[in-house]
Amino acid sequence: MQLRAGAGPTDAGTVLAGIGGGPLLRPGAGLYLHVPFCFHKCHYCDFYSIVDTRDRQGEFTKRLIAEVRALAKATQRPRLATIFVGGGTPSLLAVGLWQELLAALAEAFDLSGLVEFTVECNPETVSAELMAVLAAGGVNRVSIGAQSFHAQHLKTLERWHDPANVFKAVELARAVGIARQSMDLIFAIPGQTMTEWDADLKAALGAGTTHLSCYALTYEPNTAMTARMKKGEFSQMPGDLEADMFEHTLSTLRAAGLERYEVSNFAKKGDECRHNLAYWRQHDWLAAGPNASAHVRGVRWKNIQRLDDYLNKHVRDFAMVTDVEYADAVRNLSEAVWTGLRLAEGIDAAQTLAAADAAKGGMAEKIMRVARRQMELGAIVRVDDRWQLSDQGFMIADAVAVAFLEVIE
Ligand code: SF4
Questions:
Q1: 60: three-class secondary structure by DSSP
Q2: Is residue 91 in contact with ligand 1, taking CB distance under 6 Å?
Q3: Which CATH architecture has domain 10-280?
């Protein structure tokens, strides 16, 4: 069956059935699970999450397990390389529900080749009991939302946790053998100084983390943070200080042996997040849970967002999906360039030009002109037939990618 855009509301099972032709998932495939509950809504957050009152966790987990089983069956129990459970706050799920979910995953999928299994954790919700259950279920990496080690900045973000619990969470994970701990940090918080940002980086390194995701605070539409700024409660950090913080991040982490492998992600060699690399390299991944996005062989889709809809509207246990994007040479090329350029490894020049040639006559020449111009400007460099952002190019990564996209779309 050939899939066509504009076919109306559908479900993930129908989309998968339409891809057809041999094993659906290519080797190295991943699985993303979305847990939508949080115990409080942080003011900067525009992810799909709802404040948990613990009364819907059981119903949600039951539904998630049914969806996981349906996806595994439709894809012939594939061998997964990575699993990532994000949210929301996955560590908020009750321990007994985690046990059920982990057992269902082990039964539904072939996990014999699993190299990475990550669970996102809020430091406030990490317990020894939870860590022991996660480790026993194969979790070998936690991603801890530290954001800042300064209580006043967490307050500005309306982020509810005690900074001391970040270190406790790291210790609890290590104690049960979860060897890899990543941390998320935010910079460019209103009122934050360079000295404080430096202290945050050093605190994370001091805890022995070998993977850090460092994001500049962004003001997304419809967040409380943006509304508060518009009301004049605080003002956005000046652009030059934010840029200095970005540069300081690179030099500090590089000196500590953590290299940038994506615009906002730094790791010791070999400790990069393999699941996220698979996203950026356009590999295949399945997704379960409300608002979770999947990609299989150039086809993308997203599960229905609202929890109520997710719980009540499904077809043969598959979630209803929105935003289905069917395989298309031009769209696939622009996605490969957009995500690939964000990686330190960059994009393969010959492959990009061949894909451009196949997509549209004359496009390869235009791409080559853009690449030459960006090299003259010092934004990209050519290394081993790959186009890669320079340190300067990383400062303007979006603008460089847009220059390419303008001739692709
Ligand atoms: S814990 Fe994470 S997902 Fe939940 S509201 Fe805060 S930032 Fe958003």
A1: helix
A2: no
A3: Alpha-Beta Horseshoe (3.80)
